[in-house]
Amino acid sequence: MTLEEGLIYQGIWPLCGVDEAGRGPLAGPVVAAAVILDPASPLRPLVRDSKTLSPRRRAELFELLTTSDAVHVGIAIVDERTIDAINILNATLLAMEQAVCNLRHKPACALIDGNHTPTLACECIPVVDGDNTQPSISAASIVAKVTRDRYMVAMDARYPGYGFAIHKGYPTKAHYEALRSLGPCPIHRRSYKGVTQLEMF
Q1: Per-residue model confidence as pLDDT tens digits over 61-104
Q2: Which residue of 4, 72, 126, 163 is 20 to 30 Å from 43, comparing CA positions?
Q3: Side-chain half-sphere of 121: how many Cα atoms within 13 Å?
Q4: Which of 13, 25, 16, 12 is nearest to 139 (CA)?
Q5: Beta strands 30-37 and 15-21: pairing type?
Q6: Contacts of 99 (CB under 8 A, 6+ apart)
Q7: How does the average pLDDT of the chain come out, rounded?
Q8: Domain residue spans in the chain?
Q9: Residue by residue, what is the 3-state secondary structure of the chain?
Q10: pLDDT digits (tens, 9 = 90+) for 163-173
Q11: What is the pLDDT of residues 146-185, one digit of tens each?
Q12: Which superfamily does CATH assign the domain made up of 3-160 to?
């Protein structure tokens, strides 16, 4: 029995899982999702850590999660300027807090992926590697990643030449080469090492 199943068995409900996408990239926002996954939902055995799924499978599960009556989803996006101002950890916790606040139903408990928890009105339980072990966190990881990836694809059209549609803002060789030739664009995180010309050389 997972921690999540044990809590539900004890009558702790509603319960949500919370995860983020985008802590490591050099550009773009951090996105958090909070998901309340009905105990009887047929999606429970299907969800996995988003990083272990193919892009196609993530997209399929995203559509199922965001259109099912048995699933409630809250999403929050914290932009790169806020990340620069308050640092990525605080920006991530802010996104998680906002994602939970954006749920239609207020949870009695939130399972948070990782070892830090946001400030919420309900009980928060940090779960290291929770996206691999707790279905609602796995569902949140899928929603957060697909939301952020689609945002970065849109930014690729707005800021061509950086390859955002391919690497989604992460620090790849191609991304660094684009930064060297083009310099940072408006969605780059100026506080990150490797973004400004001064820091790269």
Answers
A1: 999 999 999 999 999 999 999 999 999 999 999 999 999 999 99
A2: 126
A3: 9
A4: 16
A5: antiparallel
A6: 18, 32, 33, 34, 74, 75, 76, 140
A7: 96
A8: 3-160
A9: CCHHHHHHHCCCCCEEEEEEECCCCCECCEEEEEEEECCCCCCCCCCCCHHHCCHHHHHHHHHHHHHCCCEEEEEEEECHHHHHHHCHHHHHHHHHHHHHHCCCCCCCEEEEECCCCCCCCCEEEEECCHHHHCHHHHHHHHHHHHHHHHHHHHHHHHCCCCCHHHHCCCCCHHHHHHHHHHCCCCCECCCCCCCCHHHHC
A10: 999 999 999 99
A11: 999 999 999 999 999 999 999 999 999 999 999 999 999 9
A12: Ribonuclease H-like superfamily/Ribonuclease H (3.30.420.10)
Q: Give residues with Cβ within 8 angstroms of 134, minimum separation 6.
A: 2, 3, 4, 17, 111, 127
Q: Considering the chain, what percentage of its residues have pLDDT values greater than 70?
A: 98
Q: How many residues does the chain have?
A: 201
Q: What is the pTM of this model?
A: 0.95
Strands 30-37 and 71-78: antiparallel
Tokens of 65: 């999660």
